[in-house]
Amino acid sequence: MSHPNWKRVVIKVGSALISPNQQGCSSHYLLSIAQFIVRCRANGTQVVLVSSGSVAAGAHLFPEQEKSNIAVKKAMAAAGQTEMIATWDRLFDFPSAQMLLTHADLRDRERYVSIRETIFSLLDHNVLPIVNENDTVTTDKLKVGDNDNLSAMVAAAADADALIICSDIDGLYDKNPHEHDDASLLKTVESIDASIYAMAGGAVKGGVGTGGMRTKIEAAEKAVSHGIDTYIINGFTELSFNMLLAGENPGTHFKPYEKPMKENVHWMTHTSNAQGEVIVEGDFDESLVRDSEQLTSSEIIDVKGEFSVGDTILVRKEDGTKLVKAKSNYSSCLLNFIANQENDEFASEFEEKTGPIISDQHVANLEKE
Fold first, then answer.
1. 52 in a known ligand binding site
2. 153 is known to lie in a ligand binding site
3. What residues bind ATP, as annotated (predicted)?
4. Does 304 count as an annotated binding residue?
5. Do the domain assignments include residue 54?
6. 210 is in an annotated binding site
């Protein structure tokens, strides 16, 4: 079989591959991954590398008793990041570039577009983008939290054809293979539902990573909805990468949507977080909310949270039914003021002059829960 016809691929490598013993970076498992990247590029496939491992790589530089301290963890990330990038750079004979992101970068539309443009420019000039979360500066409010989901967001931003997520097992099993000898590997997943998540179980226990199989399923769901073929493979064996290059499936293949979400709708659904909520009347026709011109202050009964112009908000009914996520053209303060006006004519005239409450260019419909 010939190599797959990928134009662009994103590969995610975790901390356990970068620093297996938390004693700095090791090239032991990275050599086969680097060779895979080299061969992809030789075949005309552009590659984006999403690499965890900065905290694990820098751990050996700090006393054990201090490693639970948040400030020390950030210092570990800062020290380990340079070692990690240097390790990757030594494995290639072409230039690479470091991109450190937070979720705040990705959920802001203007910065997200800037990230896309930077990735495309690097790839066009044959520079390998190496992406990681900026653990040195991120906070609970600003972080993605795991590089599985980050890799899916990057794959969407890069308009990738395939996302390859490296794991410590061959793929998704119907039960935990570490605990059950009769566990069976799922070679193909047609669609991701509650039963697939049930197989993933909870978060990983122990180890040096922050994710687990569940975060990999979450990442796969983000990617396939953008039309991206997604694979979970065993990153510790060279055979996995040889099989991929031969057009074979070495792990679990998640098939993409036949009709992928549009880029801006995907960003709104899977990347942008709602900064607040707008509650509309219980009898409000949810089909109208898809037309931003139809959502006026007269339908709004409450505004929750604090948000600014351009922030993403959630529009829902009183009973909790989620209608859409959308870009707000009003701040929460101004929207509260207008919605509380007893004079409906004032509100109507104001909205007529300033425009619709939400932007129809960035509206993502949500399923009822």
1. yes
2. no
3. 12, 167-168, 210-216
4. no
5. yes
6. yes
